[in-house]
Amino acid sequence: MSSEVSQNGDEKSQKPLHDSTLVDLYVGEENNHYPLHEKLLCHHSPFFASIFYNKENKSSRTKEYGFPELEDQTFALFVGWLYARAIRAPEEERDIGPLLDLYFLATKLQIAALETDIVETVRAFYHHNETYPGLRRVQYVYANTDEDNVMREMMVGSVARYLTLADSIPEHWANALKKNGQLSVDIIRSIQEWHLEARQVPDARDASVDRGRNTFKGAVGFSHVEEGSSMENVKEENEEDEDEEDESHVNGNGVA
After folding, report:
1. Would you place residue 142 in the very low, low, confident or very high pLDDT band (cuts 50, 70, 90)?
2. Are 114 and 219 contacting, i.e. CB atoms less than 8 angstroms apart?
3. Where are the alpha helices (DSSP H) in the chain?
4. Smallest Cα–Cα separation from 193: which of 157, 169, 155, 164?
5. Cα 12 from Cα 9, distance rounded (Å)
6. Contact 153/145 with Cβ under 8 angstroms?
7. How far is it, in rounded angstroms, from Cα 63 to Cα 35?
8. pLDDT band at residue 235, thresholds of 50, 70 and 90?
């Protein structure tokens, strides 16, 4: 995958959209002003189309709208995608946070193409760096999305692989799984979607095979929980610097 997600083929078809009148969008508590092309917004976003056009598809008298709850950085990323159809690839894990905020905005604005671009960008980051989403990232996504969400599915699928390949469950993940049944169910669903053949899965009913009670670093038993990561050369991304920020956004839908 290239370092940027781009749709250059749309440039010619969108030129007339750039010739439309401007609407005024105000972002954040300080009402930062963004004059943007009306037709371009409405072309990509049913949300904006419902605001700036009436049912007869005629121009509405409304020419301004505000997002006082949005961070200016998030909306600036959206404007960059709107006019360039590109997302800059994250260079380090801390760059994922702003992309998730942009994803939540894309969901609100009903821009499926932007949602897809962000999911693929985040997916490529973790795959290229051979890392996995940390617990805080998963919590943040659960707090701001509903079931049957592509970003949530990608995050959970990654975590399912991480935990399955690990020698034991890291303590913070064990605590989260005990407290949040939905996350546990989603991980099992993700594993089921691998469609493994029966011969690939150990049979605990067969006395001749290992049944999961191996000795691991001096501890014996199925329920052993390791304090820390258990996978050599493959790690879960460290997000300690952003723990407070992410935790402040977790609501009733999040992972406890």
Report:
1. very high
2. no
3. 11-18, 38-44, 46-52, 72-84, 96-109, 112-129, 135-144, 150-165, 171-179, 181-192, 243-247
4. 157
5. 7
6. no
7. 10
8. low
Instruction: Name the helix (H) or strand (E) containing 86.
Output: strand 86-88
β-strand pairing of 219-220 with 225-226: unpaired
What is the pTM for the complete model shown?
0.78
Q: Are strands 219-220 and 64-67 parallel, antiparallel or unpaired?
A: unpaired
Rounded CA separation 91/94 (Å):
8
User: Longest C-alpha distance within the chain, in Å?
Assistant: 76
Give the confidence band of 2 by pLDDT, cuts at 50, 70, 90: very low
End-to-end CA distance of the chain: 34
Taking the C-alpha atoms of residue 29 and residue 122, their distance in angstroms, rounded to an integer, is 29
The residues facing 34 across adjacent strands are 25
Q: According to the model, what pLDDT value does residue 204 have?
A: 84
Query: Nearest Cα to 109, choosing from 70, 159, 160?
Result: 70
User: Do the beta carbons of residue 89 and residue 124 sit within 8 Å?
Assistant: yes
- At which residue do the structure tokens 């037709």 appear? 39
Q: Is the pLDDT of residue 186 over 70?
A: yes
Encode pLDDT of 21-80 as tens digits. 899 999 999 999 999 999 999 999 999 999 987 665 555 667 899 999 999 999 999 999
Structure tokens at 246: 């992410």
